[in-house]
Amino acid sequence: MGFARTCSVALVGVEGVVVEVQAGLERGVAAFTLVGLPDKSLVESRDRVRAAVVNSGEEWPQRKLTVGLSPASVPKGGSGFDLAVAGAVLAAAGRVDPAAIADLVLIGELSLDGRVRPVRGVLPAVIAAAEAGYRQVVVPEPTAGEAALVPGVSVLGVRSLRQLIAVLGDEPVPEEEPLPEGSPDPALAGLTVPGAGAGTGLASAPVSPGGPDLADVAGQRTARRALEIAAAGAHHLLLHGPPGAGKTLLAERLPGVLPPLTRQEALEVTAVHSVAGILPPGQPLVNTPPYCAPHHSATMPSLVGGGNGLPRPGAVSLAHRGVLFLDETPEFATKVLDALRQPLESGHVVVARSGGVVRLPARFLLVLAANPCPCGRHTLNGGGCECPPSAIRRYQARLSGPLLDRVDLRVRVDPVHRDDLLGPSGRGESTTVVAARVRAARERAAERLRDTPWTVNSEVPGHELRTRWPLAPGALAAAERDLERGLLTARGLDRVLRVAWTVADLAGRDRPGDEDIALALELRTGVARGVPLPTRG
Alpha helices, DSSP H only, in 201-288? Predict the structure, then answer.
């Protein structure tokens, strides 16, 4: 009896579990049995592996073959186990030294002709292998750059099963015939899910010189100031006002103001995008904040994650470490909007399905845009709004109180004045200038929070803000009055404190003063506090 083992990785959400692939040959009628809780696509690997081995010039063992995937209790799916199954079978048959593959992690799909096709989720799979102590992985060549992002792991990219056999047997590695220049590579189809990017409104941060610039936004000094505060402290933002005032224009420019992702953040984002199948080929690392703007007809599974079997990442996870923009927010289903309450508080979403429970990262900056009524002309002088009061109340009530209580900044965006739109005075600062101030404010916050588990002001619990970094006596007097009058909840008071610290960081002050608290209150409650905006741009 021949026996060999190697390893691969099963993905559960965006987390990986190392799976031992065992192959055993014994006397009996030739048969191929695959056990270990495989799904349909994995069961079909029996035919793919057999054809790939034969078409690679190797002999298929004519004995009873059993391939086991351990642990058997973990659901396993996808075609990424093909390469590991083929390696274990060839080692059990004596074509490859079993010791040569025992400590390898093999990830990849096999074509019938023996070529190795790329699969989604290589980065989280290699991360799981490294955390389990494995130091050598074999992946399809197009995803070798993605796998190489994990430190301390030796990565081998192969184009075919023939190349893998040659490397393991210390034989000359055959050269695979390259595709004609300019012809499409069908193997790259395994890296993306058709329509996934378009369906979620996903785009990279517009930081290129020709991308959207804040200088394009005419007027709107208050909204621009709120956008800067939101970026500096990662505070959630609501923009409400009539159509055409610039709400979407502002939201689309927010990712360009955010600082570039740190190495750890970039790995987190890349892992999610790799699993979702929206990682652009040739771009192994996403280092700019993502921007996700789903349509208002989005369902709950598409927003928070779901699908058949084990849940897949939704829009809140695709916007991890970036911006989630919900345009025409009252048009979203109420249950869909209320599903955002958990990730807004915890920074992750837990999705339970019959196939299992998955924890997905979801620490995003939420931007909501809403009209004042169904026709959008309710607040305009002479706008001709004919919506009945009951319709206006129902429309505005679609944004529930518990959801709005988690939004730090609520800004009214009025129509642009003619002088701001056509005159030179309406042009504001560019994205580059604002982004520099945002980076400086984040550095000040990071220095203050250096010995804590938090990095931005929006993450700091209110109790810590009130005890570890107390304000000057009497600075909270206005906020305390609003709390007593019912204009603020306890959560709202904490969020006012966080915004005030961000305002102070932008101004270069050591701690918030009366004006910082007043501005934070004005941006949350909409009640004017007589705080002048800084004259910029």
Answer: 221-233, 247-257, 263-276
- Domain locations in the chain as residue ranges: 2-176, 214-459
Pairing of strands 365-370, 31-35: unpaired
**From first to last of its 537 residues, what are the pLDDT tens digits of the chain?**
699 999 999 998 889 999 999 999 999 899 999 999 898 889 999 999 999 999 999 999 999 999 999 999 888 988 999 999 999 999 999 999 999 999 999 999 999 999 999 999 999 999 999 999 999 999 999 999 999 999 999 999 999 999 999 999 999 988 877 665 666 666 666 566 555 544 455 554 444 445 688 988 888 889 999 999 999 999 999 999 988 888 999 999 999 999 999 999 999 999 999 998 888 777 889 999 999 999 999 999 899 988 776 678 999 999 999 999 999 999 999 999 999 999 999 999 988 877 678 889 999 999 999 998 998 888 776 667 888 989 999 998 999 999 999 999 999 998 888 777 777 666 778 999 999 999 999 999 999 999 999 999 999 998 888 889 888 788 888 888 888 888 888 888 999 999 999 999 999 999 898 889 999 999 998 777 666 666 554
Total-model pTM: 0.89
Give dist(CA 267, CA 261) in Å, integer: 9
Q: What does DSSP say about strands 291-292 and 202-203: parallel, antiparallel, or unpaired?
A: antiparallel
Residues 79, 45 contacting (CB under 8 angstroms): yes
Specify the DSSP element, H or E, that contains 312.
none
Instruction: Judge contact between 534 and 224, C-beta under 8 A.
Output: no
Tokens 């290129």: give the residue. Answer: 208
The domain at 2-176 falls in which architecture?
2-Layer Sandwich (3.30)
Q: Rounded to whole angstroms, how far apart are CA atoms 243 and 373? A: 10
For residues 134 and 9, give the distance between their C-alpha atoms in angstroms, rounded to a whole number: 11
Q: How far apart (Å, rounded) are the C-alpha atoms in residues 457 and 442?
A: 9
Q: Is-contact 314 306, C-beta < 8 A?
A: yes
CATH superfamily ID and name for 214-459: P-loop containing nucleotide triphosphate hydrolases (3.40.50.300)
Tokens of 354: 């019959």
Residue found by looking up tokens 């409104």 in the block: 201
| Burial of 294: CB neighbours in 10 Å, binned 0-12, 13-18, 19+ | buried
